Amino acid sequence: MGDTSDEEKALGKVKVIADQLGLSLDEIKEKKYSKKTLKRMLKNKVYNETKIEKRKIQKQKRKAKRKELKETLGINLSEKKPRLTMSESPNKVNIAIDLSFNSMMNEKELRKLMKQIQRCYSLNRRSDAPCQLYLTSLKDEIAKGLMSKQPGFDYWDIHRKEEHFLDAFKDFKEKGTLIFLSSDSPNLLPDVAEIQKRGGDYAYIIGGLVDHNVHKGLTLGLAQKSGIQTARLPIDQCMELCVSKVLAVNHVFEIMLNATNGIAWSQSFMNVIPARKVKQSDALKSIRQPKKEHKENSENVVQKDQVENQSSASSGSESSTT
Q1: Which of 20, 23, 28, 74 is the most exposed place for a label (fewest CB within 10 A)?
Q2: Which tens digits make up the pLDDT trace of 2-30?
């Protein structure tokens, strides 16, 4: 008797969700949707229905905040900072993401890699001095995926190469200035000053592979077989990780981009590597600032400086008057 009652309750809950999704119980049985799947579908439906309205509200709030700052402190946040293209940038260091590992990833991992590539492009585009960012072996599924999933991919300020990085950077290989970045490498990258000094004479390759842990030692083996140098980030010299030293593609790129702009390894690791990966991360969390909080604090500092400057100016004029 109790089992029947529980089944009826469960069926009743499924029917409520089905009605909200506009599905019949027959359709659910036919497509074998689980209760968990139906809940996720409903959550996505609600999100899609409300996201446009939420964005409008957020946009209005940002607009009101900018207006308030402009009227009270004379700060115009609407003025966009001019961005340099790669050709205009003084940063000529070459960093390439090698996309020749597509066959070793499933569809979900490929989608994740595409998001990481988008993040790399965004970081470089917003940098005060963008590096020379390359995508090599850009063909097949990854090329089609980027063109279909990333709006405006054709207009990205990025170097596109269909050929393998060994062919794209053939001259660098011959000169011995082609370096494949691998967490398994026995060699350490030099300090940031040396990275900057090398400039465009060197090219650094990041393996476009989402789950390196499954293919441990793969990138190192391929690099050694190809007769090129390898190096790893000096993470061990700056902090202790509680998990694998393998980082996401976008994290490795961001750290390298920071290095080409003169940001010390230790500072870059602290800002980029997720706190959950760092041993004694609670201590680090206390000195790390979340990006949102950091932005708000920066705005508060700007406002405070403006107020202090205005106060100083007014007091100065009173003194001169007296």
Answers
A1: 74
A2: 555 777 777 777 878 888 878 887 778 77
Long-range CB pairs of 254-259, under 8 A, 24+ apart, other chains included:
254/120, 254/123, 256/93, 256/95, 256/131, 256/181, 256/204, 256/206, 257/95, 257/123, 257/124, 257/127, 257/130, 257/131, 259/189, 259/192, 259/195, 259/196
pLDDT in tens, 128-182: 999 999 999 998 888 888 888 887 898 999 999 999 999 999 999 999 999 999 9
* pLDDT score of 195: 96
- pLDDT value of position 312: 46
Same domain as 258, residue 134: yes
One domain, residues 279 and 144: yes
Write out the two tokens for 73.
């402190």
Residue 312 lies in a domain: no
Residues 99 and 203 in one domain: yes
**Cα separations in angstroms, 109 against 60, 114, 212:** 37, 9, 11
Those residues whose C-beta lies under 8 Å from the C-beta of residue 215, and which sit 6 or more positions away, are: 104, 209
Task: Tell me how far apart the alpha carbons of residues 33 and 39 are, in angstroms, rounded to a whole number.
Answer: 10
49 and 177 part of one domain? no
Contacts of 154 (CB under 8 A, 6+ apart): 147
Phi-psi region of 199 (alpha: psi -120 to 50; beta: other; left: phi over 0): left
Q: Please tell me whether residues 53 and 135 are part of one structural domain.
A: no
> Of 211, 253, 230, which is closest to residue 97 (Cα–Cα)?
253
pLDDT of residue 56: 83
272 shares a domain with 188: yes
Q: Which stretch of DSSP H or E encloses residue 178? A: strand 178-181
275: CB partners within 8 A, 6+ apart: 281, 284, 285, 288
pTM above 0.70, yes or no: no
The whole-number average pLDDT for the span 293-305 is 48
